[in-house]
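User: quick one, sequence for these tokens?
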């Protein structure tokens, strides 16, 4: 959602990452991910894996942000942590503030209920812990803010990871040790919270400490690829081949079809992250996957990926408003999706696009 792709490598950059610059196909992957979320929340939650769409977003964020930070380390010798935070704030806060203000207005007019703590959790990015540990209103009367849990997880990643990478990036063994720890420790912690501590499934699903590995898998792929030279990177990665695609697809399908509750809130996120690494690697570097990349670069699909942050913010508010006039069903779903595209486009063009020159001034490579 919030992570941007670079427009191109900056002048004078010496980055060795084959992922530097605009990465073809990833806007299309964003479009697929947000489609999962929108369709699931519009009435197909029993058939469409909306939660997996969020997991895709997490892995993409890790992949893109790590690539940008490693490029910065290679070019300048260090991470510009302060500028990174500023760029993230300019990217995320304006649309979030507009969304929260519009939701507050709707809530006041229609008699929805919330708490001041929920307002603070939404504004200061701790909705993941509020949702899993704090008081919650039922969906029919509460503010439609539940989707903000994933933004909180990503923001916590944005706050901590640049500091950790600044400390470890110059020594590869230390950096990879950190990344493997971020991949392997959270699933162990999920077992402890779920079985030993008796935390709710919501905690393992939404809390930063139990979901950060979904982002870390993307970070790990970016670090593995960074430093690879040559035109055919795929040959240098052992999993970029048809067997890798088959394995990645099988892993993802298993994670979605195996419905054990214990599995869903413990191992599921781990194997999904591994499966996404296999699939992303093949999408990005396998020559036989270029036809799929071309499809994902189709302009309407790419545009939907560009406005995915706005779509993710507004879609549940739109669904809540439509419930006053429409019954659940195909008509509701069609109107909800079209309305979400219209509102998200307005937010994108009125709020995000005008700020792009400002963000570029502070080093953003946004297109």
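Assistant:
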């Amino acid at each position: 959602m919030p992570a941007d792709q670079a427009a191109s490598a900056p002048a004078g950059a010496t980055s060795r990452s084959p992922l530097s610059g605009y990465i073809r196909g990833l806007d299309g992957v964003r479009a697929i991910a947000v489609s999962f979320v929108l369709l699931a929340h519009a009435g197909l939650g029993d058939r469409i894996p909306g939660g997996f769409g969020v997991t895709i977003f997490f892995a993409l964020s890790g992949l893109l942000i790590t690539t940008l930070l490693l490029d910065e380390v290679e070019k300048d010798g260090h991470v510009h942590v302060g500028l990174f935070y500023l760029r993230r704030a300019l990217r995320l806060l304006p649309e979030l503030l507009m969304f929260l203000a519009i939701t507050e207005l709707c809530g006041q007019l229609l008699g929805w209920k919330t708490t001041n703590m929920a307002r603070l959790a939404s504004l200061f990015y701790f909705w993941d812990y509020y949702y899993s540990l704090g008081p919650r209103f039922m969906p029919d009367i509460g503010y439609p803010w539940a989707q903000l849990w994933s933004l909180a997880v990503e923001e916590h990643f944005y706050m901590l990871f640049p500091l950790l990478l600044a400390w470890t990036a110059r020594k590869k063994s230390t950096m990879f040790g950190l990344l493997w720890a971020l991949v392997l420790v959270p699933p162990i912690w999920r077992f402890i919270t779920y079985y030993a501590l008796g935390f709710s499934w919501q905690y393992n699903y939404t809390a930063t400490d139990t979901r950060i590995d979904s982002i870390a898998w993307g970070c790990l792929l970016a670090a593995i690829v960074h430093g690879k030279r040559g035109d055919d990177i795929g040959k240098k990665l052992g999993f970029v081949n048809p067997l890798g695609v088959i394995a990645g697809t099988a892993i993802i399908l298993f994670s979605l079809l195996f419905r054990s509750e214990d599995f869903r809130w413990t191992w599921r996120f781990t194997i999904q992250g591994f499966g996404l690494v296999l699939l992303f690697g093949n999408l990005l570097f396998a020559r036989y996957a270029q036809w799929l990349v071309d499809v994902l670069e189709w302009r309407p699909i790419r545009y939907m990926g560009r406005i995915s942050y706005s779509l993710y913010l507004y879609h549940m508010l739109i669904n809540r408003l439509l419930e006053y006039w429409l019954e659940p069903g195909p008509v509701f779903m069609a109107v909800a999706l079209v309305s979400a595209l219209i509102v998200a486009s307005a937010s994108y063009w009125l709020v995000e696009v005008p700020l792009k020159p400002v963000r570029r001034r502070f080093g953003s490579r946004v297109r």
